[in-house]
Amino acid sequence: MAAERTQPGTSARTGVVWEVLVGGLARLAGSTGGGALDVVDLGGGTGGFAVPLARLGHRVTVVDPSPDALASLERRADEEGVSERVRAVQGDLGSVFDAVAKESADAVLCHGVLEVADDPVEGMGAAARVLRPGGLASVLAASRDGLVVARALNGNVAGALTALHGPTPRRFTEDALVELVVAAGLDVVSQHGVLLFADLVPTAAADDPDLIELELATASRPEFRALATRLHVLASRPGA
Ligand SMILES: C[S@@+](CC[C@H](N)C(=O)[O-])C[C@H]1O[C@@H](n2cnc3c(N)ncnc32)[C@H](O)[C@@H]1O
């Protein structure tokens, strides 16, 4: 029997990204006149997004350097009955074109990967080149400003100041993330903050069913989103 797993859309940790992504894919599928899209999930790990996307009917290629993560992905895809729509390829941002052709995808996911890339500018550029004209990029990265807030609220005021004044490698401000996306030749479609309250509320409130609604209601508002733990940018490749 398929293992019960929390679906991204029902979790306060992933709900915002899922809503934004699925909305973007639905609009794209509508505008291309088709249903199933070609999606590449760079650093897609164990398939937390890839498998649910395949369940929606999309064809997903996951490129990840970790054989263990890919093995878990394949098991998960099998359990969910979507193996024929999920391709697992060992590789990384630097070797992505060994695994997928340039301009071959309708959408590319780059979630939690720019933080671990040797060169985020190169990595984002490679992600953008995977896309066909008109394709969508979903970029999720750890926030520098969210780290400042989290450290201060944990009583680590000196650490908050260190994060604020930087350099803070592997963390991005909203402006820096947008700059990366634009430098890769993409147009920003929307910006959201992910995990503002879910990472700040006391443990007792972590399972509060209203938490996802609060995350969704605040995620796009500039006064909240810049302080979230992660930043999400949806962007499109011009020229469709
Ligand atoms: C934080 S996890 C994110 C997994 C998934 N994208 C998610 O959001 O749940 C980072 C993933 O990136 C992979 N990774 C590490 N270095 C990478 C690189 N240079 N290029 C592509 N993926 C990489 C890791 O194996 C891991 O699966």
UniProtKB/TrEMBL annotation:
A single GO molecular function, which one? S-adenosylmethionine-dependent methyltransferase activity
Domain Methyltransferase type, by residue range, is: 40-137
Q: Which domain of life is it from?
A: Bacteria
Query: Does this entry carry the keyword S-adenosyl-L-methionine?
Result: yes
Query: In the UniProt record, does the keyword S-adenosyl-L-methionine occur?
Result: yes
InterPro entries in the cross-refs: Methyltransf_11, SAM-dependent_MTases_sf
Against SUPFAM superfamilies, the record matches this protein to: S-adenosyl-L-methionine-dependent methyltransferases
Q: Which UniProt keywords apply?
A: Methyltransferase, S-adenosyl-L-methionine, Transferase
Write the signal peptide boundaries. Answer: none
Pfam families referenced in this protein's UniProt entry, alphabetically: Methyltransf_11 (PF08241)
Alphabetically, which GO biological process terms does the record hold? methylation
Matches recorded under PANTHER family: METHYLTRANSFERASE, UBIQUINONE BIOSYNTHESIS O-METHYLTRANSFERASE, MITOCHONDRIAL
Quote the protein name from its UniProt record: Methyltransferase domain-containing protein
Q: Which organism does this sequence originate in?
A: Actinospica acidithermotolerans
